[in-house]
Amino acid sequence: MSGVPGCKHEKLAPHGCITAGGVATIDRYAFGVTKAKGMTGRHLNISLEIVAHR
Length: 54
Fold this sequence. Notes:
Elements: E1 17-27, E2 43-53
Antiparallel strand pairs: 1-2
């Protein structure tokens, strides 16, 4: 991730930043997405990092 100038991407960085993140595995079939077989796998791994800076 590109980062925010002055932010160290820690839980409570000294420069007014806060970060939150998570990782999930999604089963496409459980959501009813069964089209486009072969385009992607059944299970998708998603990671997300959110950085707030004031």
